[in-house]
From TrEMBL:
Domain HTH rpiR-type: 5-81
Protein name, entry field: Transcriptional regulator, RpiR family
Keyword DNA-binding: yes
Residues annotated as domain SIS: 131-268
PROSITE patterns: HTH_RPIR, SIS
Record keywords, A-Z: DNA-binding, Transcription, Transcription regulation
Record GO biological process: carbohydrate derivative metabolic process
Originating organism: Gottschalkia purinilytica (Clostridium purinilyticum)
Molecular-function annotations in GO: carbohydrate derivative binding; DNA binding; DNA-binding transcription factor activity
Amino acid sequence: MSLESDFREQIRKQYATLTMSQKNIAKFVLDKPNLVALHPAKKIGEMTNTSETTVIRFCYALGYSGYSSLQMDIKKSLLTSNHQEGPVQKYHNSTINKMNKENFIEYTLKTQIDAIQQVLYELDKEIYQKAIEMIIHAEKVMVAGFMSANIPARWLSSILNTIKGNTYLYTGAMDDANYFFTEKETEWLVILISFSRHRKETLTFMKEAKLIGAKIIAITDGELSPIASEADLMIRVNAPKPEYVKGITTIFSVMEILINGVMMMDAENAQKRLKDFDKLSSRFYPFIED
């Protein structure tokens, strides 16, 4: 399935331009695509407390020729993709067992296993492959994550710099901003990490990066994220909430896919850099002998 034709991708790109009523319809379409595939526009208008006319205008706003065109795209997507809840996630969501003093260890580990299984079930290889290619071919990479997002951003920038080089962590400091925004002739790739509650600095930084022609990969919580519509590519992470507490394992698993992809697809360069890194580390940071 083409990234350009998927209804979710169309919503991601156009969400910021929609009216409030159209945004309500967008949320409904993302949450309940099965109902949209089955019911006419008039019924969807009733379900979303809007109208048949608003639903049709919503379709036009996404670039479709009408409601039937959107329905057809949704039906195709439901047949070829795994954006619905997987069997593991369904079981986890329906379980009546809650965390208590007796089961918190098992409950915690099972929650993390379920979340990673859900990533696997929803996996869109085309998106990850494109992201990996963008990383490999970028002259320079800037990874940014504000507040709690700085933790995964710091890890990702450090590992990418080791295996690829020319990768920087944006901390928001003035010297970083001056360096970044004055290097306009460089082909920058910006990887932005943001989950609810989204920081305004993330969106501001993204818009400034776009002005100098940087490509943007957004690692975020879905098509309705405030940074999704401006990104060239979005990696959706369906992690337990709050993401920076219960979902951090899922976020790191997604980033590890990118790391392993770069190491596989740019193996010669990655292996050379790892050998050089080991030599340098042994000189400056010797290990304790066993």
